[in-house]
Amino acid sequence: VVFVNMTADWCVTCKANERTVLGRDGFRASLDAAGAVYMKGDWTDVDPAITAFLESHGAVGVPLYVVYPREGEPVVLPTVLTQDLVAEALAKAAGE
User: Fold this and answer.
1) How confident is the model over 69-81, as pLDDT tens digits?
2) CB 3 within 8 A of CB 65
3) Burial class of residue 81 in the structure, from the number of CB atoms within 10 Å of its CB (0-12 exposed, 13-18 middle, 19+ buried)
4) Reported pTM
C-alpha cells in the first residue's frame, strides 16, 4: 500500500491537511496498520514529472492524495482530508 501526497509550499489546503491529519500520530498509526509507504511530491517549482502525475489522475493542481492498494486501482482522496477518511482508505487498500 502506498499513500502519495502531492503538495506545494504555497498551497494553503495542503498546509491545513498537514496540520490536521498528515502531521498527526493517528495518520502514522494508520500507515503502520496498513503496512503502507508514504511518498511526498513537492510541486512548489511546478516540476514537469509531478505535473504529468497530477494530470494522469485528473487533477489540475495540488493537493492530490492517492492511495495505491495492494490489489486494484488507485483511489484519489478528496482535497480536504479527515483522519477517519484517510484511515478508512488505507485499511481498505490493505484489504482489511
Assistant:
1) 999 999 999 999 9
2) yes
3) buried
4) 0.94
